[in-house]
Each structure stands twice: as C-alpha cells, then as structure tokens.
Design brief:
Blueprint lengths: L1 H30 L7 H22 L1 H10 L8 H25 L10 H5 L4 H28 L3 E6 L1 E2 L4 H14 L5 E4 L2 H13 L2 H4 L7 E5 L2 E6 L2 E6 L1 H14 L5 E2 L4 H16 L10 H5 L1 H8 L5 H19 L15 H6 L4 E2 L2 E2 L14
Antiparallel strand pairs: 1-6, 2-7, 3-4, 4-5, 5-6, 8-9
Helix pairs in contact: 1-6, 2-3, 2-4, 2-6, 4-6, 6-8, 7-10, 11-14
Length: about 375
Amino acid sequence: MTTLVSLFGIAGRLAGDLLTSALSWASSLLFGRVPRSHQIYLVLMMAGSFAWLMLVMGLLIPSVASLFLAATPHPPFVDQAWLGIALLVGVILVPLGVGLVGFLVPAEGERPGGAAMLLEPLRGYILTPLISGLLIFLAGVGIVRKIRSRRHGWSDVHVPIVVKPGGYDQMVADLQKALVGAALPTTAEDAPRVLTVPAWLLTRMAGSHVRKLRPDRLIELKRRDLRIGVYPSDIAISGALRDRTRARAAIMSRLATTSAHMTMSAEGQEFEDRLERLAKSSVPTGGISRAAAPASFKAIDARLLDLAVPTDEWDVLYRLRLQIERDILTGSEPGTSFPGGAPDPGRVAASGSLRDDGNSATVDRPFLANRPEL
C-alpha cells in the first residue's frame, strides 16, 4: 500500500508539473509577455476566469455544489439554498472584476480613456468565458504536444523574449539565417490552426488593450528532427538533445542583435538597445583594436553596475555584454557567432586582423571551438 501511495504521489506531481507548464505556455501564447509590475493583473484575470467557470459548474450541476458545501467550512444555517444564491451572485459579479483587471493589464499610457474606460468592466462578460475556455483548450494542446515530443524522444526548451513593435518578421528571418549558420536549415511555415484560432478569437472578442498583448502571427521553423515555434513572447524548441542544444546556442546568440528583447523591465530593455547600438556601430569597420574595446564598453559597464533590475535580468544583460565584446574582438558580426561556431573569415580578412596596440595579431581561437558533440 505504501508503494502504491508513493507511485500515485509521483504520478500526481508529474501531472501537476505538466499541467502547470502547459497553462504557462497557453497564457504566454494568448497574452504574450507583460511588464513585470503588471503580471499580477494577468494572473488575476486567469484566476477569475477559472473561478467563474467553477461557479457556473456549481450552479448548473447540483453534485458539484454539494461538493463545494461539504469541502468548505461554513455556519450551520448555510444550506444548499444559500449556496445557490452565493453562486449566482459570483457568476454575475466575477466577470466585472475580470473586465476591470483586464483594463489594468497594459501600461498606464496604453489604457483606453474617456467613456471607453467605463465600458471595460462590461467586456469581462465576454473575456471571462473566452479566457477560461481557451486556456483549458490550449493547456490540452500543450499536453498533447509534450506527449508527442516524448514519443519521438524529444524534449522542449523555451526562450522567453519580447519582440519589438513591427519586428516579428525580421526576427524570424534572423533566426532562420542563424540556424543555417549552425548547419540546421529550416523551412518557415504558418503554425497549425489549433494555435492560431484561439489568438484570432481573442483578437475579435477582446478590446484593443488585450489585443495589443497577443501575438499577431505565429510561425514555426521546421526540419525533420526539429520544431521551433517562434512567438512574439516565446521561442519553443523541440527536438533531440544534439539538435536542440545547437539550435538554442544559435538562437540565443542571434537574439543579442535582432529585433527582440530578452528582458521585461524598461531599464533592462533600454540597456539592451544601448548594447545593440554599440554592436551595430562596429559592423562597418569589421573589428576594433584590442586597445579600443575596453574604452568602448567603459560607459556600458558603469551603467550596468548601477542598473536596478531583477537578478535574472541582470545576468542576461551581463551575458549579452560579454557576447558582444567577444564577437567584436574575434572579428565576427555581433550576434552571428555562437559557441562552436567560427568568426566570419570574410569579415576578419576585410579588417586585416585584430590589432593589439597597433601591431598585427592573429585572431583568438573561437570560444568553445567546434565540438562534435554539439
């Protein structure tokens, strides 16, 4: 019996982790990434939608209402009739709360104003059933996709991003080119309709404030043994270990200078833009002298040390700063070289070579030079 209980416990934890991961993916697909300070509103919208769904089930199915009554502490005078009234009131009022929270999700300057602001709570009567239904549907899709990946012996890895306005197509093209450089050529195809239809429904039914948060389009980069879903809020890489690792290395390196942010705070994104400007200013020269490189990053480093962002964002920014400096010093166009890849020989030749205090020098051996296991 103890063994059976342990097995059920392990199975329950695995199922819970799978469902949590699928729900996280579903919410990201529907809403994209929102400012860190506003994520609580998105959580409240989803929680309110699920709570409303449970209230409706309790109102329509007597056995569910009885379960609610038996599972929660309550005064003796609260009976089935009182519970029915409470459920009805909740079904009526919860959507108003979801609509109000949905109004608060965008940044303050992007919220509707005037008379339109008064109508936003009423939109909750559309959003609440729509969000709850879509999240459950997409969570099921996510579980099916994970089962399919496991059947092929694949695993998934996610790279959170924030695509810059109007930059989705450019990012897709940059990532596809980076994968070619990693000997992983792919074809770009529209994502399956099972993923695009939910976002289309949300666009048609929700207000402009929610519409701005969801992906405008979905593209998948495919090859026989690799699937890469490119979303404005997430890059999902599915494949076997070798190809998945190599694809992630190429994508992470290319994200340094493509039209996407890897941080969510305004300060972090401003710093990323500053790094990108520095990286692009080095492209025409084909490289900089070793003596000039530290001076170019002096102001960058001073700003990084004073940057008040979450630790995970600071780590991302520091990695980007080191990558761009490394690319410049090895003669690579920033963002186009990755661990195991070599600098572009054409660029190195065009720049003559890297220089050390005015004297000709050979280019350093690439970071983590070609490794067959990747």
